[in-house]
Amino acid sequence: MTEAPGLLSILVRPGHPDFLDLPWEVDLAAWPGATDRSIELQRGLSRHEVQFVSYGGADVYAVKELPEGLAKKEYGALLEMQDRSLPAVEPVGHALAARPDGVRVSLLLTRYLDASHPYRVLFLNPGLERYRERLLDAMAGLLVRLHLAGAYWGDCSLSNVLFRRDAGQLGAYLVDAETSELHESLSDGQRRQDLMIMEDNVGGDLLDISMVTKLPDTLRPERFGANIRRRYESLWTEVNREVIVGVGERWRIQERVRALNALGFSIQEIKLIATGDRDKLAMRTVVTDRDYHRHRLHDLTGLVAQEAQAELILNEIEELKARLTLEGRRELPTSVAAFRWLTDSWEPVQRRLGSLVKTEADAAERYCQVLEHKWFLSEAAKADVGLDAALDDYLERFHPRKSRKARAR
């Protein structure tokens, strides 16, 4: 007996809509004409049908249609990645539905990654040219993070990644985990296999783009994957490098920790291993995520930012701390400087940016744009122009309507 078209079962994590009002009885490709919740967003290429639905405000979700059983498998992989603090889209649930032709399909529900871009947008939008070469470091960093956590991707490509602007850099987030496997750790063979797949796939992605727009010589399709691999190998070697520590050289331990923190990695533990020389030990560091500065900024201020944004802001807080220390002639805790920065810099700038800041994710990026503009103006003037003057000029140059409204008030 053929099943009636419609929803057969659904699992949704707490804190999200129940999605029962969606038109599960029709093919996913027909949702734009079947529900008012369907919205159009920029998207990358996908071998499976994907639609976006809105439940108001920032509550936007992606729905991907897969053969029966695969959505549950991918949901489990994404859930495990979230538990391991890996940069991937947030899994929300999965469903099983019957189609009008009697075929069963499974559907994966994920939260839309706010303020993100598929790689095609970065290449086809003239205003985002500066970010194209940043893809190399973003992809290399994403693969290193996955492999350190024991995650084998199996289908690494530009199409399976979303990118977020991060203080002039890019952050990369895994979108498609259909072929992913989670292990305690990966063998060198598994890592090599993942890198081989990556090289083939991203070369094809860039070849596709080169048919539409001219690429610079530094982004030639046949070299792109190899360039990512070289950056991956360099970062992997640095993170896993063993350091020999002699008796009385404890400073080497902190030096190593600071170097890894500067790369954004948080340290889980430090292992000291006998070398056979009683005066020397081998130090191995075990890193967790690449969000050291994000965690540090959140601990100090409660603000949520991307890694490069957080590093830039923390540098500003440290500069303020040094200035306050000189003025007061005594060392101040970083927490005191962070509070002063919040009240004297962050909050006034956010008030003046006002409606330019659309989301929480946008607030830190806008602030960092002002900081970058301040650096540009200060370089030209050969002196620190100050945050207020930089903000005035930023608004006048890039958002003159906003600047005029502020002057009118």
TrEMBL record:
Keyword Endoplasmic reticulum assigned: no
Alphabetized InterPro entries for the sequence: DUF4032, Kinase-like_dom_sf
Keywords carried by this UniProt record: Kinase, Transferase
Chain ranges of the DUF4032 domain: 234-397
GO molecular function, one term: kinase activity
UniProt entry tagged with the keyword Magnesium: no
Superkingdom, natural source: Bacteria
A Pfam match: DUF4032
Protein name according to UniProt: LPS kinase
Annotated source species: Mesoterricola silvestris
